[in-house]
Amino acid sequence: MTFELFYWPGLQGRGEFVRLAFEATATPYVEIVRGDSPGQGLDALLHAMDDPRCIDPPYAPPFLRVGDELIGQTANILAYLGPLLGLVGESPRARRWVNQLQLTLADLVAEVHDGHHPIASRLYYSNQRAEARKRTADLIDYRLPKFFEYFERVLAHNPHPGGWLSEGAMSYADLSLFQVIEGLYYAFPRAMTGFATAFPRCRAVRDAVAREPRIAAYLKSSRRIAFNTTGIFRYYRELDRASPF
């Protein structure tokens, strides 16, 4: 089985959540846009999205091609990959639960993005600076604590040992929580100063994922695209501020 990942070039974005699942499990995958062989590159992504013969077209990247099927939406892709890669429990309840956690993280990711693009995604950040300062202030002061209080509670109430979000093993939701925390440390270094003290269980998940040998190797490799100001998590000095953590 060949997994072909389609995502925009030059940024981690939502595609990174899928990459982490592949990297954590040493699963071979082809990143179409980053290749230079026939049928690869940005044109291949655009063609796959707009192909009139496609019966299951994705709305936007990331999407995964497996055989003749295109699977879109990050949480949907991970719900498909989780059982195949051993990143979710075997019971239907466990799979629904991890998907629920992933969808909650997707809500958080959307709010982080809207912090620097509060009016419209099609406008440059420079066109909405004042509104971004207001939106990000609420994100840091109210929304981030609210989300992480929830995940801290989930971790505290998990009856299984190991310190993971679901059952006793790392799931794709743990990988995604790691990515969100990493992104927030990049985007808001001042605001995240007290994060480890305020949310020790969440920080422990982040540290445990980073110590996983395959993830540690990936983070040091050229395959890991650096955070930058074209992705979801963006550092703008004027948006960073002290937090209530």
General description of the model:
This protein folds into 2 domains: 3-85, Glutaredoxin; 92-220, Glutathione S-transferase Yfyf (Class Pi), Chain A, domain 2 (Up-down Bundle). It is 51% helix and 5% strand. It is built from 9 helices and 4 strands. Strand 1 (4-6), helix 1 (15-24) and strand 2 form a beta-alpha-beta unit. The longest helix is centred in the middle third of the chain and has 29 residues, at 129-157.
Approximate helicity band: 40-55%
Cα(first) to Cα(last) distance is: 45 Å
**Number of distinct beta strands:** 4
Give the second-level CATH assignment, the architecture of the largest domain: Up-down Bundle
Number of domains: 2
| Spans of at least 5 consecutive residues with low confidence | none
- Evaluate the radius of gyration: 18 Å
- Structure class: mainly alpha
Give the amount of beta strand, in percent: 5-15%
- CATH topology call of the largest domain: Glutathione S-transferase Yfyf (Class Pi), Chain A, domain 2
Query: Major β-sheet, in short?
Result: 4 strands, mixed
Principal-axes geometry comes out as globular
Topology readout:
Elements: E1 4-6, H1 15-24, E2 30-31, H2 42-50, E3 63-66, E4 69-72, H3 74-85, H4 92-116, H5 129-157, H6 172-187, H7 195-198, H8 200-211, H9 213-220
Parallel strand pairs: 1-2
Antiparallel strand pairs: 1-3, 3-4
Gist of the model:
It contains nine helices and four strands. The protein has 245 residues and is mostly helical. It starts with a strand and ends in a 25-residue tail after the last helix.
